[in-house]
Amino acid sequence: MVNNLRKKDKYYKKKSLISPTINSFLKKSKGILYGSTAVNFYTPPHLDAVPGDYDIYSQSPKKSARKFEKKLDKKLGGNYFEVQKAKYPRTWKVKSNVTNKTVADFTKPETKIPHNITKSGIRYAKLSYLKKKYKAILKDKEEEYRWDKTKEALQRIRIYERLYK
Q1: Residue 85 included in any domain
Q2: Residue 32's domain is classified under what CATH number?
Q3: Strand order in the sheet with 102-107
Q4: What's the angle, vertex CA 142, arms to CA 83 and CA 90, rounded to 5?
Q5: How far is CA 140 from CA 56, 66, 107, 112, 145, in A?
Q6: Which domain holds residue 49?
Q7: CA distance 41 to 155
Q8: In a 10 Å sphere around its CB, with 0-12 CB exposed, 13-18 middle and 19+ buried, how is residue 109 labelled?
């Protein structure tokens, strides 16, 4: 029991390494960030949302997820993460063994994703693509469980476009 608590304590102490590790991973891979993290990239800080996880397009999502999981475990110094198949087809999740929360979703895109590459080498889905994707989600009854989050993201994009572009 004490060893398990020590492992969890170590995880929480090193949890702040997750974000820089994903950034490092994305610079070297050809993954494309989308979702809340991508919207945050384009909008000013006061319009940012706290992303629950990183959403990444990858041509080989299972392989990317495994590679990222190994990199995280090495960086944090233990077996803190695992790869799981998601309910959504073409998607693999990297989850924390400690919190059981998803850290990153890797999804194989159905089409070519328009993106921008930043000076730091990270690829972000274009804002126009994200806006179009969110509008499609809001028209799809099967995606109703995502509507609140999607409406909020679309609202942030619209505020940004009207006030800051």
Answers
A1: yes
A2: 3.30.460.60
A3: 81-85, 91-96, 102-107, 54-57, 32-34, 123-125, 115-117
A4: 30
A5: 22, 31, 19, 21, 10
A6: 2-125
A7: 15
A8: middle
Q: Beta strands of the chain (E only): which ranges?
A: 32-34, 54-57, 81-85, 91-96, 102-107, 115-117, 123-125
Q: In this structure, is residue 62 part of a structural domain?
A: yes
Q: Is residue 134 part of a domain?
A: no
d(CA 122, CA 87): 27
Q: What is the pTM of this model?
A: 0.92
Inter-helix orientation angle 2-14/61-76, to 10°: 110
**How confident is the chain (165 residues) per 10-residue block, as mean pLDDT?**
80 92 93 95 93 93 97 95 94 96 96 91 96 95 92 95 88
The whole-angstrom separation of Cα 98 and Cα 107 is 23
Query: What domain count does the chain have?
Result: 1
